[in-house]
Amino acid sequence: MASxxxxxxxxxxxxxxxxxxxxxxxxxxxxxxxxxxWKISVRLGCKGVAPKQQKISHHDFLQQKMLQQEVEAVFxxxxxxxxxxxxxxxxxxxxxxxxxxLLKILANLELKDTTQLAQVSQRFREICDSEKFWEQTVRxxxxxxxxxxxxIASAMxxxxxxxxxxxxxxxxxxx
Length: 175
Prior knowledge:
With 175 residues, this protein is an alpha+beta fold. Helix content is 47%, strand content 16%.
């Protein structure tokens, strides 16, 4: 299954924790963990300083607690745990799906199932709470939806429209 993945299994970047203004990028490739940092400073001695890059094998990353602590300090516990799982060969293919594909999958589920799915992870919760999801739910599953209701949805939101006009039993498409 790992052959379905590209060269980069995971990539994340962001600014380091305060007071530092340094910028960091974490890449987990098929066989390496690459942590790159750029020193951001107005001091003359820091101008033109090349980025610092650490490349390490998956096995070595799992052994190096200092590097793990640096990743955790910059990106947080969730990113560190995800990185360690990737280094152990544990890939979460569902998490790698695009939002559009997940929305297509959600379109085939009952609303009660999507409420359970929203409890699986923060990503699924965000998708199940998104306006795109609720628009899809109303447009595709609610009997009695008319084009005139689009204006109402724009004003009050698709989720609120659903619960105000269509929700009675917890199932899509019923009134």
